[in-house]
Amino acid sequence: MTTVVIALKGVPNGLNIGGYIVKGPQKQVPGEPVPEHYKTGGFALTPGVPKEVWDAWYKANENSHIVKEGLIFASDDANIHSALMMQGGMRQAIPDARRMIMQNAGKG
Fold this sequence. Notes:
The protein has one domain (3-104). The chain has a 3-stranded antiparallel sheet. It is an alpha+beta fold. It has 3 helices and 5 strands.
């Protein structure tokens, strides 16, 4: 059985996708370890979801807000970090790069 890792953010209580509970990002609790999603661009990761379950859910929900806004996506284990970079990291990298250029524009 082929499985995927589902990445979700913006839905703190998570989702039920075909009977699989997809974790949502939780708040940081003082004194507790930093939640893993704080290290993944705000996405909580749920591994081990059958690809067929994800594909069926995606097809039924491809026009939903969370899909269109990139708040949920799936990837195989080997490519999840690259997918996170494209979904979350690159979105933030572009404004950060613009800010750095503007800050350094007057320096010579």
